[in-house]
Amino acid sequence: MQPAAGEELCSPAAHGMATRPPGCSVDLHQLLESTYVHGTSSRSMRIEQGTFDSTDARIKQDIVRMIVQYLEKEGYVSSMMTLQDEAAVKASEQQTRRTMLRRAKKLILEGQWEEVNKICSKFATKTQNRMHKSFMYTMYKQQFLELVERREVQKAFNKLTNSLKPLEGYQSEPNEFKELCYMLTCNSVQDVPSFRDWNPSSGRQSMCDQFTLMLNLEEYPDDMSLSKVPPDRLVEMMHQAVAYQIEFNRYQPSVTPRVSTLLEDYTTCVLPSTTVHTLTAHKANVKCVTWVGEDGQAVATGSSDCDVRLWETESGLCKARLSGHKGRIWSLDSTNKADMLASASGDGKVRMWNLTELDSLQREEQVSCCEVLDGKDQGHKGDIYSVRFHPRESHLVTAGYDKNVRLFDIATGTVVKTFTGHTSAVSCAVFNPHGNLVVTASKDSTIRFWDIVSGTCISSLSKQLGEVTSVMMNADGSLLLSGSKDNSNRIWDVRMLSLVRKYKGHSNTTKSFIRCVWGAQQRTIYSGSEDGRVYIWDSESGALLNSCTGHEGVVYDVAWNARQSLLASCSEDNSCRIWGIDPGKIVRDSRCTL
Questions:
Q1: How far is it, in rounded angstroms, from Cα 308 to Cα 297?
Q2: In whole angstroms, what is the distance from residue 507 CA to residue 497 CA?
Q3: What share of the chain is helix, strand, coil (3-state, %, to 5)?
Q4: What does the alpha-carbon distance between residue 487 and residue 45 come to, in Å, rounded to a whole number?
Q5: CA–CA separation, 320 vs 358, rounded Å?
Q6: What's the pTM?
Q7: H or E element: which one contains 309?
Q8: Which residue, 241, 233, 201, is CA-closest to 47?
Q9: Contact, 557 vs 288, CB < 8 A?
Q10: Tens digits of residue pLDDT in 69-95
Q11: Cis peptide leading into 419, omega within 30 of 0?
């Protein structure tokens, strides 16, 4: 690829990169176009869910009004009018409830209990039943206290037995009803310690507050809808969101990139070439690596020393050691929110690890296992080679030496489905993005697609030339990436069950298991190799872009994190490496530039 006029090419050799990696038929100097950046961002920020309350009525109305403005400008008049009509109905209902609330407050403060009771009955079916009964208890209690205060003992006794007793379970304090009974023997309400500060006016005001809460209405001005929506507000907020993502990206471009979609977060599409951290603590080869959560604040590694270790991404320090397995760790996976980690082992068990306190962990702390999934009589017989969370994170799929694939219900720890049909060990099992299919790779040289509901194999691929060691689907589920022991990785069209492209240059013939993954924006492919290198291909052209050197043994597994723009690899040399870019000058594949 030729550089644009006025632009320079950054020599790959300047970054410790071979101009022609082994097996590369295209000069990287012709493929890569330099993009200079300002270096790594000195700030890092996590997206917090508490910046605003998405359930707040004002926020909801603001969102609707921005959408209405956008639809009107773009000419979607019918859609705009439909949305306005629906929003107006809801606004009318809210206005009716506010009017009723104002009337109810007035009646409560005046002590017109019969009228208050009528208003409550109108909302009884529209509110939570418990909240309604709790309010009724409070109202009867207020009437009782005022009767005691006026020394109308007989009326107070009748209110206690006929109205309060049936609602005793809704008392605000455990012994409150008993205290109300005792109050009948006292001279005044204040003689009971817990009611020492009570007076009729404060009690009625508390009822007003409880009634407002029951109706779930916010106290904001009724005329807030008159506030003007700034021009192009929705599009402007989209620009701000993308600018935020670019600003806090690990690698900041010197020129503003063009974003082609708003359905995915902006990520830098760079070609890793430099070791950022070398993680060494395992006492045996490291078989698997995964990023913990979408944010990738930590890396998890599994080893033949039977331990799982957690490493902090920024510092490279080992934060925790997860022990308990009696066999080597073959596979790891974590939830998107980084609150749970699953590990599959040669001991035939899957262990679940609670990572909710990950941020507070100090160096090499021990984390206890919160659940062991062995399936009892329905479990695996032998090594479990693969474990993956369902997209909804309610189930796990596992595969192993016994040729079977099993679906676990995480909540109950039971096997809810077993997929049988492979004639040899199953090396990898993953879900498609929609969660309705399980895709498996096996040593029998086939890839199978299973319906998650019926458990039947609905299609298969058998055009491999060797044992299949890994599979991974792209974001929309249309393409499948596979690695096999014929020194090649392949991309398949899932709908047509046809081969799209083949990638060669690495070595994968004898070791278990060499895995490959989609890279930055799914425009690159990363793969381990038996020659100790990490190989990188252009997914569209199939060209070999680079091979990263540093490991001193077989590279088994690789993992890419889009949020961090970092690559992790693990090896036979007992280590894991995190790969990034030299922040001074960055080589970037120009076709990956948004």
A1: 16
A2: 25
A3: 30, 30, 40
A4: 41
A5: 9
A6: 0.66
A7: strand 308-312
A8: 241
A9: yes
A10: 899 888 888 888 888 777 775 666 666
A11: no
